[in-house]
Write a structure and sequence with these properties.
seven-stranded parallel β-sheet; about 350 residues; three-stranded mixed β-sheet; binds nicotinamide-adenine-dinucleotide; 11 helices
Length: about 350
């Protein structure tokens, strides 16, 4: 059995069905902030609970944990810093300790694939298109609360593994994900650009022309998790791996989405520079060669693939008639609304 924390989120809503299709049984622990995105399945058990309250019983019959739960972008982390620290760091540290205790007590491997982020590499001025790609071995000085919490969570998993040889953490520093999912996010850059193109025919570019992102198709993210689950422990234990495909500047991404939709869907799309140019965005580029050397896996889907399938889903009405006004697709305003709900502590169960 695989335990997936945060399995009802954007990544989980694609990953959990893939695990089920591969024949696994899956236990999901999720606060269900974005409601239930996972259809019922005889081998799926969803528990609405906080990872902070982790119990050894969650690990009964579990060979691997895919730890996705937490605040998943800068804006939502900055909205609720204390809650973000609780979910991203304290909960991960408790989970790490319980996984290591159970692995040591039962003398069996428990693997943990942790959802870290390439945003750890964002530092200093924008990484220009010609600058070096970040490798896992470089020292990082994460900027901003979200990246700092990911870094601290990585450290707590590695510390728990030091005391317990049976515990096998693998840290996946993922690029910015793109593509349609059952639980959708339109606050991710390629998804947002495609939604703008579909809604208005205009893509506005904010920020410096040099702002870069390593992009990752959601289906490639899912395959990377499946690949890392299947590797021998000696190959992956305690490893940090970047998981990303193409590195693109934001303007290049916008023009690529526009030209793809013009060529393949006959859409009329204009790309404009926004008047309100915000240079505060993070910029980083990453190499995923280590993942390829370790496992033979390489992300193979492109920005074009993501834009086309997302466009088709938008045209088909998969996200309703006005997804750009549906706050559930945008983490920060949605969490703001949850926090303003009359029930106290609306981010917990
Ligand atoms: N989406 C990306 O581009 C991307 C890139 C790099 C890393 N990541 C990381 O991957 C993970 C998944 O990302 P996503 O886009 O699916 O995020 P998401 O915001 O869609 O989903 C996060 C899920 O975690 C749950 N959750 C939050 N705190 C919890 C807690 N304390 N206990 C139980 N459940 C909790 C929420 O209910 C939600 O369903 C996150 O950790 C994110 O930081 C995502």
């Amino acid at each position: 059995m695989i335990l997936v924390t945060g399995g009802a989120g954007y990544v989980g809503s694609a990953l959990v069905p893939a695990l089920l299709n591969a024949g696994e049984s899956v236990r999901v622990v999720d606060l269900l902030w974005f409601e239930r995105s996972l259809p019922a399945h005889p081998r799926l058990h969803v528990v609405q609970q906080d990872v902070l309250d982790v119990e050894p019983a969650w690990l009964r019959d579990v060979s691997a944990v895919i730890h996705l739960a937490g605040f998943s972008n800068d804006a939502s982390a900055n909205l609720a810093p204390a809650e973000c620290l609780r979910s991203n760091v304290t909960a991960t540290t408790r989970l790490a300790d319980v996984m290591a205790q159970v692995a040591a007590h039962e003398q069996r491997e428990i693997r943990c694939l942790f959802a870290s982020s390439c945003s750890l590499y964002a530092a200093g001025p924008p990484a220009s298109p010609g600058s070096l790609l970040a490798q896992e071995e470089v020292g990082v000085i994460p900027l901003g609360l979200y990246a700092q919490t990911k870094y601290e969570a990585e450290a707590s998993l590695l510390a728990a593994a030091q005391a317990c040889p049976e515990f096998c953490p693998v840290l996946l520093r993922k690029g910015t994900i793109m593509g349609a999912a059952p639980r959708m996010r339109f606050d991710l850059v390629a998804n947002s650009i495609t939604c703008d193109a579909w809604r208005s025919g205009v893509i506005s570019i904010y920020g410096s022309a040099n702002h870069c992102r390593p992009m990752l198709h959601l289906s490639d993210a899912v395959e990377a998790y499946l690949t890392l689950l299947a590797q021998p422990s000696a190959r992956v234990r305690n490893q940090i791996v970047n998981v990303a495909g193409e590195n693109r500047t934001i303007p290049a991404l916008a023009h690529l989405v526009a030209s793809t939709l013009r060529e393949e869907r006959g859409a009329k799309i204009e790309v404009v520079r926004a008047l309100n140019q915000n240079d505060g965005g993070r910029s980083y580029r990453a190499s995923s060669e280590k993942l390829y050397r370790m496992t033979g896996y390489r992300a193979r889907r492109t920005v074009r693939d993501a834009a086309l399938s997302l466009w088709d889903a938008l045209v088909a009405g998969d996200f309703g008639s006005a997804p750009e006004t549906d706050l559930r697709f945008y983490n920060e305003p949605w969490l703001k609304r949850l926090m303003a709900a009359p029930e106290a502590n609306a981010l917990a169960v």
